[in-house]
């Protein structure tokens, strides 16, 4: 089919001048192109360069599908909408793309003075360019079929998208870098919820995907193995939480999470440099804050 011949193509957004951290995925169709994820505002130059390398301009992007509204996934959505792109998003995320002020204020509490450097500018998406996508909905665009799968756990407003055997998993598929079969969970506040994530993993495992494309980072041909490792990672996380959280002080949690993630990486055969790249994609301190909130609220 047309989509199989013309995509998906991984666009490396060179986050923080580092390759292989944040991807947008390009699929050409006979009326232009679609993107899965926009990346943050800070990587717009790399997005434009990536599009140009494949014969596209921002004006050729008819549709953008964001897995969720976090800045590393949807921060440039408004910029693309300004070039004519329709933006498809979970209904709970839609109001925050129309008016990102609360989203930016919340992120500012986490990232402080680094907001502009990390994420750049996020502008609103005009209402006429926003399309709410329901769970299970199939969007048809010039021969492409894009099926949305509601997959909470990382965020309540999270979709994965299934397109011709490739599952674009956003963050709910975990972070997998450098082609290695090692997965880390990004667990930021305020919506990390382990039980929901376990259910989402099972839904993805049975969705029939052949390939998996996490936003962090790349397209892998081994979807069944990926979701098996994801399930094992979720189980390891539950064991660590139940073993560690009852006896750890909140002031010790950031160091505890950082040490646990490093030990997992080294045990899986990653080098210290590889682990550092995972830390760039998923700062352990952010996961510590999400874990603390989850534990207080649900456990």
Account of the protein in words:
The N terminus is likely disordered. With 299 residues, this protein is an alpha/beta fold. Helix 8 runs antiparallel to helix 9 and helix 10 crosses helix 12. It has a 6-stranded mixed sheet with strand order 1-2-3-4-5-6. It is globular, with a radius of gyration of 18 Å. 40% of the residues lie in helices and 18% in strands.
Helix % is: 40-55%
Strand line-up across the major sheet: 1-2-3-4-5-6
Distance between the termini: 48 Å
Low-pLDDT stretches are 1-5
| Class inferred from helices and paired strands | alpha/beta
What is the element string, with H for helices and E for strands? HEEEHEHHEHHHEEEEEHEHHHH
Largest sheet: 6 strands, mixed
Question: How is this structure best summarized?
Answer:
This protein is of the alpha/beta class and 299 residues long. It has twelve helices and eleven strands.
List keywords for this structure.
globular; alpha/beta; 40% helix
Provide the fold topology.
Layout: H1 2-5, E1 9-12, E2 23-29, E3 32-36, H2 44-53, E4 61-65, H3 71-74, H4 77-81, E5 86-89, H5 94-98, H6 101-111, H7 115-119, E6 130-132, E7 138-141, E8 144-150, E9 159-163, E10 166-170, H8 194-205, E11 211-214, H9 223-244, H10 250-267, H11 272-281, H12 284-298
Parallel strand pairs: 3-4, 4-5, 5-6, 10-11
Antiparallel strand pairs: 1-2, 2-3, 7-8, 8-9, 9-10
Helix pairs in contact: 8-9, 10-12
């Amino acid at each position: 089919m047309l989509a199989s011949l013309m995509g998906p193509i991984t666009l490396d957004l060179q986050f923080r001048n580092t390759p292989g951290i944040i991807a947008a995925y390009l699929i050409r169709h006979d009326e232009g192109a679609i993107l899965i994820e926009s990346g943050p505002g800070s990587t717009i130059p790399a997005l434009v360069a990536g599009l140009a390398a494949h014969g596209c301009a921002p004006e050729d992007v008819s549709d953008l599908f964001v897995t969720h509204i976090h800045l590393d996934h949807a921060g440039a959505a408004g910029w693309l909408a300004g070039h004519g792109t329709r933006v498809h998003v979970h209904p709970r995320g839609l109001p925050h793309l129309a008016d990102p002020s609360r989203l930016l204020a919340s992120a500012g509490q986490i990232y402080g003075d680094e907001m502009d450097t990390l994420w750049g500018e996020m502008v609103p998406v005009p209402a006429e360019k926003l399309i709410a996508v329901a769970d299970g909905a199939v969007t048809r665009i010039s021969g492409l079929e894009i099926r949305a799968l509601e997959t909470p756990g990382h965020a309540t407003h999270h979709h994965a998208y299934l397109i011709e055997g490739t599952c674009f998993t956003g963050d709910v598929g975990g972070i997998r870098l450098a082609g290695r079969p090692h997965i880390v969970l990004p667990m930021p506040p305020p919506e990390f919820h382990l039980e929901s994530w376990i259910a989402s993993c099972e839904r993805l495992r049975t969705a029939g995907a052949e390939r998996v494309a996490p936003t962090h980072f790349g397209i892998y041909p081994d979807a069944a193995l990926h979701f098996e490792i994801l399930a094992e990672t979720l189980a390891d996380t539950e064991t660590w939480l139940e073993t560690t959280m009852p006896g750890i002080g909140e002031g010790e949690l950031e160091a505890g999470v950082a040490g646990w993630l490093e030990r997992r990486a080294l045990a899986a055969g990653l080098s210290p440099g590889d682990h550092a790249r995972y830390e760039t994609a998923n700062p352990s301190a952010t996961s510590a804050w999400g874990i603390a909130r989850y534990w207080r609220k649900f456990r």
